[in-house]
User: Fold this.
Amino acid sequence: MPIIKSAKKRLRQSKKRRARNMARKTAMKKTLKQTRAFLLEGKTEEVKALLPQASKVLDKAAKAGVIKKQTASRVKSRLMGALRRAGK
Assistant:
């Protein structure tokens, strides 16, 4: 445990940030899992409804630094491609 005042503050900050980041990551994973499940079932209408939400969650996670910007872009691109393939 930290003894110095500034170290105590840094510990408090890091705990808050970790909790916030974990919440964002959990929300992201939950949305993506749900979207992929709908894709596997062939429910394209549900996927089309969830896609903007998934995109929003990914962008927010990237903005906060939970994931990298390119990772968010890649995941969104793959979701769009999967939807396009499922629509055929």
User: Anything to note?
Assistant: The chain has one domain: 5-87.
